[in-house]
Amino acid sequence: MTFEALADNVARVREQVARVQAAEGLRHAVTIVAVTKGHPAAAVGAAWRAGLGDVGENRVQEALAKVEAVAEPVRWHLIGHLQTNKAKFVPARFALVHSLDSPRLAEALSRAAAQAGVVVPVLVQVNVAEEPQKAGCVPSEAGALIERCAALPGLAVRGLMTMAPFTDDVTVQRRTFAGLRTLRDALATAACPLADLSMGMSADYAAAVAEGATMLRLGTVLFGERSA
Predict the structure, then answer these.
(1) H-helix segments, the chain
(2) Half-sphere CA count of 219, side-chain side, radius 13 A
(3) Contact, 78 vs 101, CB < 8 A?
(4) H or E stretch covering 34
(5) CB 32 within 8 A of CB 213
C-alpha cells in the first residue's frame, strides 16, 4: 500500500480547518491525530513525512506492534476503548489516552503508572449524546470521574473526548460537540483547565473545529479506505 495522496490530503484538511476557524473567529492550534488503525506500519512513516507527528490507534495490540516496527519519533495516542487488563501496556508508550471512561479504568491506569514510575496523560471520554452503543461516561458523571482521576497518583487529566452520532446532519454534529465544550467550560478549574477537546473524525471534523476542537482524530480523509 502506498500513500502518494497523503500530503495533498493533509494540506486540504489544514485549509479546511483554517477556513472554519476564520469563520468562527477562532485562532487556537488544532492537532491532527493521524488514525492508522487497519493500515500497515508504513502509514505511520508516511504521516510523519507529511508533517503529522501524532498518530492514533484504537487497539492496544495493534498499536504495540507498530510502536516496535516504526522508527519515526511520533507521539502515540490511544483513542479506542481500553480494557482494564490492558492498562499495564500504556505507561511510557502513549503520549495521551483519549478514552478514560470509568473509575475502574482510572484506578487500573493509576496502578500501572505507579509501577512504571511515570504519569499518564488522559482525556475523559464523555458520551454527550448518551448513545447506548457507545463508550464514555454520561455528562452528569464527568465531574466525579475527573475528581477521581485527580485524586489518583500517576494520572493527569488534560481534557475531554467525545464522538458525535453517525449522521450527516451538521446540526446534530455541532450540538454534540458544543455539548462537550460547554461541559468543559463548566468543569474546568485553575488546577485542571481541561485544555484539550478531542472531537471530530473524518466525516464530521469541520463541525468539531467550529465548536472548538483542539484535536481531530482523522483516518479515512487522510489515508483513504482501509483494506478489507
Answers:
(1) 6-24, 42-49, 60-69, 103-116, 139-151, 170-187, 205-210, 220-223
(2) 13
(3) no
(4) strand 31-35
(5) no
- Enumerate domains of the chain plus CATH numbers: 1-16+29-79 (no CATH), 82-206 (3.20.20.10)
In contact, 86 and 64? CB cutoff 8 Å: no
Partner residues linked to 161 by β-bridges: 125, 198
Percent of the chain residues topping a pLDDT of 70: 98
Distance CA 82, CA 59 (A): 8
The pLDDT assigned to 226 comes to: 73
Residue type, 98: H
Look at the pTM and tell me if it is higher than 0.70.
yes
Q: What cell does 19 get?
A: 477556513
pLDDT digits (tens, 9 = 90+) for 105-153: 999 999 999 999 999 999 999 999 999 999 999 999 999 999 999 999 9
- Closest among 103, 121, 98, 115 to 217, alpha carbons compared: 98
Decide: 36 and 56 in contact? Cβ < 8 Å: yes
Residue 224 in 3-state DSSP? coil
